[in-house]
Write a structure and sequence with these properties.
The protein has one domain: MetI-like fold, CATH 1.10.3720.10. The chain is built from eight helices and no strands.
Length: 211
């Protein structure tokens, strides 16, 4: 049992890690597109964010997994299941992170942009040296909430047959007629979330300007 749960735990951690590595950087260009003065791009990003946030992640998983067959008649392989999970998770969470980024960027007073322009900073220098550090500090709390939600959402991978922690615990509990696998899964999710919350709190503390 422990070996099976360990494999499921590894899969859950892998989904979590790859989603963050993909969604966090992808959200930045989406946020810029959302704030763009070029209306077609801004509208496209608005629609994308609205669809990703307005439909269930489980439905998005099913669409990403089955779309190659229904649209292009490409045969589905077992190996594609995991890739479909990562694609769906990254696209979904990038939309949420993009809105968090946008709120953080727009919360910076416009006077700081004007002051940077007077000092001779380019737009890229203004963002990287002045706006971005302040934005990161302001978005950490809502970003932490989304990351904690991601830990729990990894269990949705069962929708397309990916054997992560929760799915394996259900299978073992059903086979052994025991609640122990469920308890083990609960402990895993709780500890995982506690570690994430602790790490994000440490980052927030380091970025605090008032101590």
């Amino acid at each position: 049992m422990l070996q099976q749960l360990g494999m499921g735990m590894l899969t859950s951690v892998l989904i979590f890690t790859l989603t963050l590595l993909g969604a966090l950087p992808l959200a930045l260009p989406i946020a810029f597109g959302r704030m763009s003065r070029f209306k077609p791009l801004s509208m496209l990003m608005r629609v994308y964010i609205s669809v990703m946030r307005g439909t269930p992640l489980m439905l998005q998983l099913l669409v990403v997994y089955f779309a190659p067959w229904f649209v292009f008649k490409i045969p589905l392989s077992n190996g594609y299941r995991f890739y479909a999970v990562i694609i769906a998770f990254v696209l979904n969470y990038a939309a949420y992170f993009a809105e968090i980024y946008r709120a953080g960027i727009e919360s910076i007073p416009k006077g700081q942009y004007e002051a940077a322009e007077v000092l001779g900073y380019s737009k890229r220098q203004t963002f990287s040296r002045i706006i971005f550090p302040q934005m990161v500090k302001r978005i950490l709390p809502p970003t932490t909430n989304e990351i904690i939600t991601l830990v729990k959402d990894t269990s949705l991978a069962f929708a397309i047959g990916v054997l992560e922690m929760f799915t394996l615990s259900k299978q073992i509990a059903s086979a052994e007629k025991s609640m122990v696998p469920y308890a083990a899964a609960a402990v895993f999710y709780y500890i995982f979330n506690a570690v994430v919350a602790w790490a994000m709190e440490r980052i927030e503390h380091k970025l605090s300007y008032y101590r």
